[in-house]
Amino acid sequence: MALVKVWVGVNTSGSDWYSLKMALPIRLNQLPTQEDVERGLARLCTHALRNYWILDPKGGRALLGLDCVRAHLPGDGTAEKEYALALRAYLEVAVPRVESGAYRTILEIVLGVGDEEWSAKEWRRQKAKARRAKAGQLFRPDEEDGDPVEADTIRQHHEPRALKALAAILIEDEHAVRAATATD
């Protein structure tokens, strides 16, 4: 991790500045494997796209070193929160590219992207089981008399397949960005 020195204020005497070190995600030199990307995306499903969880090493932090995500940085990349916003902005663009409408629905609801209802902070604060239950209700919109898909079935069966499709898009985008920057 790269450490950046950030000036945060003055001490109690008002004469000297002090600093706080903040760890920014570094660019990944090697392309990640499909499994690594799937694992990073799967971790995001636990608490959706909430800044603290994106930045947590157990959350989606591993994805922040990808060039396709960094291309969406809103600022100069000196604040951790900018990286979280970049990942959210990238996924807002990537999720609609998933071919299966059912898998797109799962990803939008579970990750908290897309429609205003799903990207609202209040929705992303819902427990993962509640988000998966809602995805199960909307998973098969054509079946009027069918039972909703259970949250556990979404989590164990459909969500991994949806994440696999999204990871393939992310890997494809990463290849494209790196190829474009290599030729520049």
Task: Describe this structure as you would to a colleague.
This protein is mainly alpha-helical and 184 residues long. The chain contains 9 helices and 2 strands. The protein has helices at 34-47, 51-55, 67-70, 80-94, 101-111, 116-119, 121-124, 128-138, 151-183; strands at residues 2-10, 17-24. Strand 1 (2-10) and strand 2 form a beta hairpin. The radius of gyration is 19 Å and the shape is globular.
Strand order of the largest sheet: 1-2
In percent, how much strand structure appears in the residues?
A: 5-15%
Structural class: mainly alpha
Cα-to-Cα separation, first versus last residue: 26 Å
Helical percentage: 40-55%
Strand elements, count: 2
* SS summary, helix count: 9
Main sheet: strands, sense, barrel: 2 strands, antiparallel
- What does the overall shape look like? globular
**Rg on CA atoms, Å:** 19 Å
Q: Which stretches are poorly predicted, pLDDT < 50 over at least 5 residues?
A: 1-22
**How confident overall, as mean pLDDT?**
83
Topology pattern, helix = H, strand = E: EEHHHHHHHHH
Task: Describe the secondary structure blueprint for this structure.
Blueprint: E1 2-10, E2 17-24, H1 34-47, H2 51-55, H3 67-70, H4 80-94, H5 101-111, H6 116-119, H7 121-124, H8 128-138, H9 151-183
